[in-house]
Amino acid sequence: MAIKSIRIIAGAMAVAGFAGHATAQNTSEIKIVLPEQPANLEPCGTIITNVGQILSRNVVEPLTVIDPTSGQATPGLATEWNQTDPNTWQLKLREGVKFQDGAAFNAEAVKFSIERMTGGKVTCSNIAKFGAAKLTVTAVDDLTVEIKSDSPQPILPTLLSVVMVVSPNTPVDKAVNDPIGTGPFKLASFTPQTVVLESFDGYWGEKPAITKASYVWRPESSIRAAMVETGEADLTPSIAIQDATNSATDFAYLNSETTAMRIDAGFAPLDDVRVRKALNLAIDWEGLAQLFGDDVHRAAQMVVTGINGHDDKLAPWSFDAEQARALIAEAKAAGVPVDTEIELIGRNGIYPNGTEAMEAMMAMWQDVGLNVKLTMLDVNDWLRYLQKPFPEGRGPNLLQMMHDNNKGDAAFTIPIFYTSAGSYSTVSDAALDNEIAGAMAATGEDRTAKFKAVFNKVHSELALDIPMFHMIGYTRVGTRLDWKPDIATNSEIPLANIGLKN
Hints:
- The chain is α+β, with helices and mostly antiparallel strands.
- The protein has twelve helices and 22 strands.
């Protein structure tokens, strides 16, 4: 296969729907095949790929929407906003909106959704994007909301793109699998085999061309590709490079995903920086890249080019097995228990060829003298290791991750991974916390410079993780659909943006 022959898709998708393309009920129904089953349909977890691709901007909608080209916040359920002081923003809400259960969309509903997200009674992945910020929400009037934070939040409108607004009838003390939002589609059913969405007649916006979408899941990339090829499915957002063989239906696209291994730095021998550096140096990066295609880029940090804070001058770790062995020997001589078993925790279906990557990396680490054992988990069990509180009784481990930041700013990455309170963080470093707090409160060029400094410290001085690749996604789109992927596809697939060819 000539990878270069597959078109690279960059730039924005059309935001408007394509009403009027469908000619009959059956032709306006589509099937999407995902790599894995969603763990749940809790709207507070839409930053998890297989949840967001179903719910985000379909069933539930955010206050703001990030433009995929500029990275700027644009109107969603909030139509305008202004900062009244460094810690306070005021938002105007969209008129004429109602929830799918008939409840009113207003300032009280927004207050309810934010307080449900931040209240701690529901495990909420999306709150990780806010770091340690504490928010106070006030309904000023029916369509005006005031949000105060305990520290300056200069990009709060961008952060609000992960606030999925739910009906005030949603339980506040438990996760739900029957989400009710304001989106153009409502949940019809959720079973172990499929999720079905049907169009919502009371939607405030333009009527989509699609009237019904069914989601199924198949872990094997070749099967997903074949389902679209034969017409059994209309779209699969992720296939392996070896299956992207048809230039008419297969698209490579520049996405915002960075693959990495999180090092649980709280356990020996991973609490020693020499061992953490050795883990990075032991990988044959050029050989590993063959699993992902010619267009992937080695990563030195957890955000892609174009995100505020990305440092183009920060060089990725090179492959130097001898130096890795020397560092491990030095650590052993200093009393570090380098022979301790390290659990390598992978996630089934996390990205194409993900299991093969874990097997290859395990062999490379074993080759330099580390005792690494691979465990592959389904998403439900893997999530227990991703987000606090981590499982009791765990030992030293390396966690396979894929982090998506298409929001334009490193604030969606750095606090989550590197502050003591970060939802995914295994680090406790007061000096680093203070440095990150300074970056989060800064603006303009000062903000960029401070984020770059954090990424440099995390990479070169502390070696807190193992950045792998900034990824290229491969998607197969059926011939009857008028749609192409963009940088946001790993986070969401808005059905209103899918047209149907005549």
